[in-house]
Amino acid sequence: MTGLATTVTERPEAHIVGTIARKELRTTVTSRWFWMWSFAFVGLAALLVMVALPGSRLGAQAGFGRTAASLVTLVQIIVPLMGLTLGAMSIAGQKESGALRFLMSHPVSRTEAFWGTYLGLAGALGIAAAGGFGVAGVITAMRGISAGAGTFVWIAVLSWLLALGMLGVGMLISTLTTSSGSALGMAIFVWLVMVFVGDLGLMGTSVATGMPVGVLFLGALLNPVEVFRLTALMTFSGSLDVLGPAGTYAVDTLGDMLLPALFTVLLFWVSAPAAIAWARFRGRSDL
Amino acid sequence: MIRVSGLTKRYGRAVVVDDYSMSVAPGDAVALWGPNGAGKTTVIRCILGLVSYEGTIEVAGLDARKQGKAVRSLIGYVPQELSFYDDMKVLDLLDYSAALRGLPSSRVDEVVGQIELGSHTDKLVRELSGGLKQRLGLGTALLPDPEILLLDEPTSNLDAAARDAAVRLLENLRHEGRTLVVTSHHMEEVGMLVDRVIAMEDGRKTIECAPMDLAEKLGLRAWLHLITARDGAERALTVLREAGFDARENSRGVLVEVSAQQKGLAMATLHEAGITVEDLEVWR
Fold this sequence. Notes:
Chain A is an all-alpha fold. Chain A has eleven helices and no strands.
């Protein structure tokens, strides 16, 4: 017995975060759950691109616009579900199986465990986003449309940011629940609210109450899925006309600052839920 | 090495560990003994900083609450079950554990040899038997060559052969001078492994003694099933009853109730009376 314990600091250590992240990434990308979502995303992205590019009758720019709009719609539905479910299953699932207790019996802090898990899952979501947009990009290029390649990449990045935001919300759910089953149920409920009820509810409320357009626009910012949609629309079309008066109001009020403002709100949605989840996990007493 | 003072753990209104104190010196082997729900595992989790608690815990002079990482770096922990990470290969799990501790992969090779898992390293964790999983758990705990080993019911899920092998391995570790804290509800295992037993019930320490005194202090009784020669049973019954034993006939022999610490007394009584005991079983 020699005691091989290395020098330990109570501060977070990058090598530990990296070790946990690599393990989490590997575990996630080899899971059936992940493959199921990734195949759905990549397959639907490929299908949408092929449907959106029926032939050469459209100009390059119009063809790209249709492709991008189709992908944004797809991302709005699938990516939040991927991020939410992966995040929701993370802490609660590990706690349920005893894996978290095993991990935390090592010289690992809760901060390291949390951010290692987050980064690993973030990497997995990045791979899924890259796969979906990569396949869509290749098909688009093969159809001879090379316009807006930079915008295409930018929308892929926005999709990943949406995934990260949803991952943070999912991990927050995971720290609030005691079992992976209830975490998953809550994640699906939040997804329904954000993707369907949020959009329809906001529209319905605005019609029923005559909500001012400014309030309607601010209400949209409370939903990260809407923020992604607005940012993506601004990115490839340069306007929010499709949103009607609220879009016009936003463009008129913020002008050139609209895109940076939307991007900032998206970054807020990326960071705030994850930070709250981390604070809750760090302060949470029992594993 | 480990000093626990006034430890109390509550889950809501339920108090699962109540004002518990213990001290474990370097090289000591101590068992936390008691029925399920006595609070043994919770004490281990508190030492590891996995749960919040009231009171103080010091490990090698470090405050387990404030210096949790440093404390855990000194400890090898063997959980009761290694049922997680089922889809990982044995070697990958050991590599992961070593990486978390900042240890080189050469250390993994050493431990694989030490716990004799060499022919199983490419298997998935879920493919291992209970005994092999327990060995793997011990392997992850031994990676840092720790001074302290915390073992939570190390043989609870093992068959007899695997349990014997595990006990032999733990005996070797004990003789290397490591500090061992073992939770158990097996009296025999406790007797073989440790120098001191702390009995717990309902979260409280009830008895602290040497293993050989535990059964006596708990007032435990045992039944001996003594197989005598064909015509000896009736005479054995008479002799034992005259000596004050509670004895009764049972097929080819007699059943006699004895103190768990004085099983030999009944045998000696029969021997003095010239009655041959051909075989015996101990029933608790």
